[in-house]
Amino acid sequence: MKINNRFKKSLSMLIITIVVLFILNKVLDDYKLRVLNLCGIYIILGLSMNLINGFTGLFSLGHAGFMAIGAYTVAILTMPAPMKEMNFFMKPIVPFLANIEWSFFPALMMGGVMAGLFGFLIGAPVLRLTDDYLAIATLGFAEIIRVVFTNTQSITNGALGLKGIPASTNVWWSWGLALVTILFMTFLMEGSYGKAFNAIREDEIAARSMGINLFTHKVMSFTFGSFLAGVGGGLLAALLGTIDPNMFRIVLTFNILLIVVLGGLGSIKGSVVSAIIVTIAMEALRFLDESINLGFVKLEGVAGMRMVIFSIILMAVVIFRKEGLLKEN
Amino acid sequence: MLKIENMTMRFGGVVAANKFNADIEKGQIVGLIGPNGAGKTTIFNVITGVYRPTEGKIIFNPGEEEQDITGLRPDEIAKLGICRTFQNIRLFKELSVLDNVFIGNHLRIESNVFSSILKFPNYRKEEKMMLEKSLYLLEKVGLEDEKDGKAHSLPYGKQRRLEIARALATEPKLLLLDEPAAGMNPQETRELMEFIKDIKDEFELTIFLIEHHMEVVMGICEEILVLDHGSLIAQGDPESIQTDSNVIEAYLGVE
Amino acid sequence: MGNQGLLQHLANGISLGSLYALIAIGYTMVYGILRLINFAHGDIFMLGIYITYYGILFTSIPWWIVFILASVLTGLIGLLLEKVAYRPLRESPRITILISAIGASFFLQNFGIVVFGGRPKAFPIPNVFNKVIKLGGVSISLITFIIPLVTLLLLLGLTYFITKTKTGMAMRALSKDYETASLMGIDINRIISITFFIGSFLAAVGGIMWGIRYPQLMPLMGVMPGLKCFIAAVIGGIGNITGAVLGGFILGLGEIMLIALLPKLTGYRDAFAFILLIVILLIKPTGLMGEKITEKV
What is the pLDDT of residue A93? Predict the structure, then answer.
């Protein structure tokens, strides 16, 4: 009856989430809705990084790169032809992409598939490396992707970026896909393959001596993670409406790492809660970077203060509470 | 069951195993003994593919369907039916006792990862069987009551037994045990001896074990190999080994 | 491109390579002992430049004393960084300490933005360095010569230190076999502190010369050189000081030559290092001069 109980619990959680989202969707203003959307997107991103770094124990720092692939795929596939023409005024877009106009969902899936494909292609050579080499190689790939996107003007519009991406992301898309991702992760990690990922994290030598093919399992985890990162990136592009290569710097990967570490490496619930908290906190603490006028006194904001605080939190968590802030014992 | 031919393993200038030969017959319990640093674990590491030998060959199932397993990856070797435990215990520490054994089943899984995520009937069926088998093995090693605890919270002796259960879950034909009795008291050691004989019969195993407890080696091994400085110095049944002058010399350091 | 052009590029390549080499040494020494990528090393380099900047502009101390003081101060900051961010985690899993390193790096960058401001600043170059030397019809700025010279001197000093002094030998012992060395009564904490000091000191010296060569200061200016120098260290074989120097020169010369010979690829300049890294890691994961490490089972 345990399963039945869990099903009931999940169903009630789902219904509550839908009702809450429905209400929030009605009452929140545009800015707050955007934050709500970001929460959903960061849940997907946090879980995708946790799959690779937390559950499988691979230290990958390539997330921004995979997000960029997803974001650009969605942007290019969904932008109507006249909008593309307006964007690509320096150098026209390559003809075969000029007139493509997909609807949102297929484009989003394509974004995920492209990111997953790159994850697979990149993973095959670099996953043979051990932890810190892997970290630097994946970071390198993310940087290469960014540099390539800056330079392939006839496909990505280079440093100018893309503006006027159809704003298709809404609360239902972002949170709907976040829920799908949560389910995906839960079922994956409950199953034999997910446990094999865990085994690799715990002890590679024991895992392969028990017949687990390290390479295929690592590539599998990495590809799934990249796919989800691509979907997250695509949702982000369709939320913001504007993207450029500089958005996808290492800082972006850092933000997601912060979510994963705060929520606890290898904790699904932790990543979800932490994604919401970090996203809201990032917005709520925006005042630290900007000046605010309280009427009688004007507080000078200092640019960068927000990230100073977040990096201190990150270090404090790894030094003093390794299991994350939110993971229950 | 397993034939090691002229195997030499060098690390830089250090010779850990020198022209080692062995022939392990099916259904036997074979012991590998020798002073500390004689290269016993190195031989296990070479058999299981952790190291690739500098020279020589490892043949699995010699005879009709023999397979040269020299230089295969550890996971490939495990799939063929050779599994091991570790001298310094390598459990999946943070995972539950049950999961440790469950993961041992993973190499035989036939459903793909998508059927596992979508919980298709073929996966469910397999998972159920894997789970039943894991529980049976836990019962076999007497850990059924501790199945939900974390592996690293078990006392030492139980961790050793859990490692054996995990190895059995891979359905080996040849089981390598690296010092299974280390850290056990006499009572536990006696139980272990019975247990090893018992699993050998039940799962039709061939067992190759490294052990320092002479009681265990002399008590259950039908054949004993003695290693010193990477070379085989004696071989035979327990009685002949006990009286072998080379062996006595190696252990006592007689000039 | 004529001979003169080539000479010019060669000189630039060597001077960039020297700078990379100086910074790469810090990575390789730390990695050799702690097996840690000190992600914040590039930001330490940035701090070194800013400290010099403020020292020159806001004090009346002669520039060369400012250079020395700033390098020492940066060295001390590096030492402090290890105490705060890495020492408490020495027994923790690698991933934890790497995360702390990333956290430290972002902290320093944003600390830089907060304290120094996000806008670029111009490095106050002492007049001596503005000289231009004409050599075979090519004009090369004085600093282009000074950089390799200073690098060479520092390398000689470092080599002397690690081969001839007791502390240096302890350092080598520690990077060869941490476990054994720690049992031999070597004061590990002291050696690690010294390692961080030297690495950060060299990064600061590199930073000051970098500032004279490319006088635009930004709080994020350490990120790219930092990553590239880590790559240089990996290419040379991480943990090996000669390797780091070699890697630095390969990277510096390679980058300048890439731009010189294939100007079309200038936009890909920053990708060059990473592509080289991945190629090296796949062909020879231990780098050009690295030793193979066998994992104990």
Answer: 86
